[in-house]
Amino acid sequence: MGMRGSKDVLYLGIDAGTQSIKASVYDGAMQLVEERAVKFDEELPQYGTRAGMIVEDEAAGVVRSPVFMWVEALEIALERLAQAVDMSSIVAVSGSAQQHSSVWWRAFPASFDPNERLVEQLRAQKAFSTELSPIWADSSTSEEVKSAEGRVGGAAAMQQLTGSVGTERFTGNQIARMAKRHPEIYKDTERVMLLSTALTSLFLGRPAATEAGDAAGMNMMQLDKNVWLDDLEDVFDAPGLADKAGDLCEANANLGAVSDFMVKRFGFSPSCQVAAFTGDNLATLVGCVDRANDVIVSLGTSDTVLSQQPTRKQVNQAALVFPHPTDQALYMIMICYKNGGAVRNDEKGEDHKWSEVDEILLADADENEPDVICIFFPHKEIAPRPMDACERAFRIDNGEEVDVASLSWRQRVRGVILARALSIKTHLEDCKSSYDRVVITGGGSNSKGIPAVFRQVLGVPVFTSQQADGASRGAALKAMLAVDKAPKGHAILSERPEAASFAQVPATDLYRKIEAQL
Ligand code: XUL
Asked: Separation of 303 CA from ligand 1 center, angstroms?
C-alpha cells in the first residue's frame, strides 16, 4: 500500500507513558519527521499528579492516574502535531501504552462530535465509571494474586497458563480488587480495557478488541491460544468479566480505518488504518531489535530485559512471556527489575558526575580496591524472584560476603552495575538459548561505562540505540507493518566497542549461589 521511502507517506506512533504522551511521525524509511509531547505534571497540573501518578495509599501500594488526563494529553499532542505535519499523509497509526493500566468505561459513546473537544465530550457523557485508573505502579493486590493463583492450581500453573506467575500489577488482579472493594464501580462498568485498547478505541471511534501481546500482561489470557481463561469470572471472582473484557485480537491486527471524528477534528485521511496498540515494553522490542537474536536491555527507572524467541522455554518464574507484538511466530520474554536507575544514581552520589562514574567503570581493576558484587536493593525487588530490601556485597572471586561498610565509592559504583549485568546474564542463560548482541536503551545507554560493563560480562557485542526512546518508534513501526513492509536496516544502532576491565567475570554459578542467600 505505502510508497516506501516516499516523503509523502507517514506513519504515526503514539507513546502513552507514565509521565507524558507523545505523538511521533516517521517517514517510509523510519526517519523521525515530527514529534510532539505533553508532559502531565508540568502541562496538566490541574490533575495533581507526580510523575504522572497519584499515590492514593502509600502503605497499601494503591497507585492511580486520572483517565481524563490521558485523554486530554492525547488530544493536545494531536492538535500540536496537526500544526506541524500534513496529517492526511499518515497512512497508519499504532501506539504504545504503559502496560497493565486500565480504563473503566461506563459506556462507550455512540458517536463523537468533531466540533467539540474529546475530553469535554467524554466528561459530559460520564463515559468512565471511575476517573482514577489503576496503573502498573500499583502493588495493592497481593490477596487477589494469591486467590487467583490458588484457583488455577498455584503460581507455576498460572505461569504455564498465562505466561506469567500471578503479578500484582497485572490487570486481572487489579480488576478482582475493584470488584471486591468497589463493587459499585465494577457493576457500573460496561467495558474494562487496557490503556492500549482504550487508545485504539478512541482512534477507531468504537470499542476495540484487546491486542494479544499486551493482553498477556493481565494474567487473564491463555498464552498459547490467545483466548481468555475458560473460567475468567471464577478465577478473579468478578461476575460478568467475560463481557466486560470484550474480544481479543492477534497482536499484528489491523483494525480498520480511523473514525470520522479523527478525520474531521485532526485532518487524518479517511483511509488511515489503525493497527492495534500494544504495551510499551512490547513496542520497545519492535523499535530496537535489528536482528532476530538481539537482546534489548532497557536501563531506566526500572531495568527491563526483552528478547524474542520462537518457543517459550522458561525456567525461572521471573520470566514474563507475551505473544510478540508484530510476529505471530514469536514470543517476547521480559524480566523487569524494580531497583534500577535510582540505585545507580544514589551510588554516583551528589558529589560526583556521571563522567567520573564512566571513568571508574572503564578503569583497570585495582588490587588495592578489589572488585565486589554489590546487591543493593533499597526497595523490595521483584526479579528474578520477590526479595526483601537489602545492601550486601560479595567477593568477585569466591563469593564470600564482605562488609559493606568497608567498601570504597569505586567498589560500590562498579559493584552495583556488575551485579545487574550478572543477574541479566544468569536470567538469559535460563530463558534464552542463544543471543549474539545486546542493544542497550533508556537512560543507561547515554553512559560510556555501563555498556562497557555489559560487553565484558555478557561477552557479546553491545550496541546502543541512537534513539533513546524505542517505544514510539516501535509503535510507528507496528503501524507500518500492518499496511506495508519495514525498510531494511531501520534501527539506528551504534556499536560500543569498549569493554570494562574487571580482573575476572564471576561465573553465573557463583552469582546464583549469592542470589540464593538473599
Ligand atoms: C512492565 C511494567 C512497566 C510498565 C510501564 O511490566 O509494569 O514497565 O509497562 O512502563
From this structure: 10
